[in-house]
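Researcher: We're reviewing a set of sequences before deciding which ones to prioritize for further study. For each one, I'd like a predicted 3D structure that I can look through quickly. This is DUF5313 domain-containing protein. If possible, include the structure in token form so it fits the rest of the review sheet.
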Amino acid sequence: MSDATRPNALQYIGYSYGKVLPPSMRDWVRNDLVGKGAQRRVFFRVAIPALLILAPLWLIPTTVYMHLAMTALLFVPCLYFTHALHKIYRAHRLRQHGLDPELVDEAARQRHAAIHDEYNKRYGPPQN
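Model: Here's the predicted structure for DUF5313 domain-containing protein, in token form for your review sheet.
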């Protein structure tokens, strides 16, 4: 992939938090949101700012256990919702960049294609 189709550092930071990249970078965006490690990248894009927002809680004078409790009380649900909604977020980002949001499930469809083919051979195609 050439440098013209990859975002520079400022573009990447903007993209990570909602900015739409130019059409020349669609292949990179597609790989970022659908390729290997996409779920992990979304996880870190949410976790890092959440930790930065929660960091000032550690400046309050109290015990380490209380710091952990205050931070975990806010951080764990953030991670839970990130995991629960990552496909919706990635589909939204694909749509923003003019790509098909169905690409989010492309890897799973490829992984399970043999199972579906075997099912169709045995029982016939699904009835609509």
